[in-house]
Write a structure and sequence with these properties.
Bound molecules: 4-nitrophenyl phosphate
CATH architecture: 3-Layer(aba) Sandwich
CATH superfamily: Response regulator
Number of domains: 1
Strand content: 5-15%
Number of helices: 6
Helix content: 40-55%
Distance between the termini: 10 Å
Shape: globular
Largest sheet: 4 strands, parallel
């Protein structure tokens, strides 16, 4: 029995690879790498094949997470047969995913921070991880902080739900 989680943003070079790398790290540390499958993708394909944005890489590395090995890809319809959780970083990503979702999809499709049950007090409160791409260091710091809280909450939720 395994559980699979796909993190989705727009370009798959900033937010979702950060979530992918952080969550994978936490899964590994919990000894659950065989039971929880992790991946990420973008609703847009402009950066397919690219490594994470340098700013995302350095923000993650500063916190002890190496995400340099990850490579961007676009969301495909098969993701709805492969993944139990498909988690969007913002409402635009979620709207796009809802247009792709087959009616037969039985998994959880929602906003990452919402599904994770993360406490996002102090942010806009709408449970989005805002796009840092056109921002500066502050936006990347804000994104990784939200993602780290979300990853912890999501892992706790999945462990409880699947008794892992
Ligand atoms: P991400 O950030 O969705 O967090 O990967 C972006 C990356 C690239 C672009 C926009 C957002 N772009 O417009 O190329």
């Amino acid at each position: 029995m395994s559980v699979s989680v796909l993190f989705v943003c727009l370009g798959n070079i900033c937010r979702s690879p950060t979530a992918h790398g952080l969550f994978q790290h936490k899964v590994n540390q919990s000894g659950l790498a065989d039971q929880i499958i992790v991946d990420s993708a973008g609703t847009g394909g402009w950066h397919s094949g690219a490594a994470p944005d340098e700013r995302a890489q350095s923000t993650a590395l500063d916190r002890g997470y190496d995400i340099s090995h990850l490579s961007a890809r676009k969301v495909v319809r098969d993701d709805f047969t492969e993944f139990d959780y498909i988690l969007a970083m913002d409402n635009d990503n979620l709207s796009h995913l809802l247009t792709l979702k087959p009616v037969s999809y039985k998994g959880v499709l929602g906003l990452f921070l919402d599904v994770a049950g993360a406490d996002v007090a102090g942010t806009t409160g709408n449970k989005e991880v805002p796009d840092p791409y056109y921002g500066g260091q502050a936006q990347f710091q804000m994104a990784i902080k939200l993602i780290e809280d979300g990853a912890d909450s999501l892992l706790a939720r999945i462990r409880q739900e699947y008794e892992l």
